Structure to design on (323 residues):
């Protein structure tokens, strides 16, 4: 199918730009989060395209001390650190590739406003609001659940932590098999300032202390080994943002699910009243304060999705809580 896009020199295959190939689960997504330096508010934005399904979707969620709905936002993200190019994600636990993804991550600031009916407008400015954007594309599970016999024990272990300090930002992520072996990992530091400054790449070890009766962190420590030296960072959770608010694991409004043409809807929930062991509440971005071993204080996110067994954590079932 020839489209207007084919007038531009964008082609990387012999096919028209519109041709998504044969992979139904191809996706192309933008994600942003933002948070006040004092932790008083948080928002997340997602926009995805799924050319193999002829679907696109978007979502905006806000965590504030106001239970009204129908909010609006006018926001501008400005990069403050160079881009983190994460190692390629490739995960094939059975006979089929589940993840085949490229992702970049970047820390920045925000300006603009968020307005909630029944409450005052939240002023967002570069001096007091920080956040992260990620840009990813490739293949991952989207849309309705696919049938067929299970090829491997169900499970997924994922931690992702972009952190903002005044002098720069860290990125840590890890994916592990049920026995604790890593199949993906990155640990990086970039100074704030010119966006062409080289990024430091290294390794990191971590200690995750679970909150009893959940699969979410009560405390988290990182030990970075970077070319410039070692750094220890301690993360203390403030509150959870439940990722179903922008489509992740949502029972109805999941990514790439066809729900009709130009359909819009919203959910409202009280974060403090959520059942943390609900299957739909396992995927969270926890807003955290970050303390570095040189005395610097920062803020950021610890994203967590832990489903199924994970021997190092003492988890043996699909959704048993930590003792």
């Amino acid at each position: 199918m020839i489209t207007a896009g084919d007038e531009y020199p964008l082609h990387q295959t012999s096919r028209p730009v519109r041709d998504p190939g044969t992979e139904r689960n191809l996706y192309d997504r933008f994600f942003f989060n933002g948070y006040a330096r004092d932790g008083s508010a948080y928002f997340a934005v997602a926009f995805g395209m799924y050319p193999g399904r002829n679907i696109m979707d978007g979502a905006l969620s806000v965590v504030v001390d106001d239970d009204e709905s129908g909010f609006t936002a006018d926001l501008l993200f400005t990069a403050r650190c160079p881009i983190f190019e994460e190692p390629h994600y490739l995960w094939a636990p059975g006979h089929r590739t589940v993840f085949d993804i490229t992702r970049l991550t970047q820390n920045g600031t925000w300006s603009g406003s968020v307005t909630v009916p029944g409450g005052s407008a939240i002023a967002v400015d570069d001096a007091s609001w920080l956040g992260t954007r990620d840009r990813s594309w490739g293949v991952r599970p989207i849309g309705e659940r696919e049938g067929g016999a299970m090829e491997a024990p169900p499970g997924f272990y994922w931690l992702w932590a972009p952190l903002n300090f005044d002098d720069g930002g860290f990125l840590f992520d890890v994916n592990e098999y049920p026995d604790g072996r890593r199949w993906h990992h990155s640990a990086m530091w970039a100074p704030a300032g010119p966006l062409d400054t080289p990024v430091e790449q290294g390794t990191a070890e971590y200690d995750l202390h679970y909150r009893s009766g959940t699969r979410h962190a009560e405390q988290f420590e990182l030990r970075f080994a970077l070319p410039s030296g070692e750094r220890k960072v301690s993360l203390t959770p403030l509150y959870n943002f439940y990722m179903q608010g922008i489509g992740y694991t949502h029972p109805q409004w999941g990514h790439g699910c066809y729900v009709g043409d130009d359909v819009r809807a919203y959910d409202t929930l009280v974060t403090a009243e959520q059942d943390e062991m609900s299957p739909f509440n396992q995927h969270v971005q926890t807003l955290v304060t970050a303390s570095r071993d040189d005395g610097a204080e920062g803020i950021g996110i610890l994203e967590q999705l832990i489903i199924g067994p994970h021997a190092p954590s003492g988890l043996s079932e699909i959704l048993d809580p930590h003792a």
Summary: Residues 53 and 73 are 29 Å apart (CA to CA). Residues 23-143+152-313 form a domain with the AttH-like fold fold (CATH 2.40.370.10). The mean pLDDT is 93. The chain has one domain: 23-143+152-313.
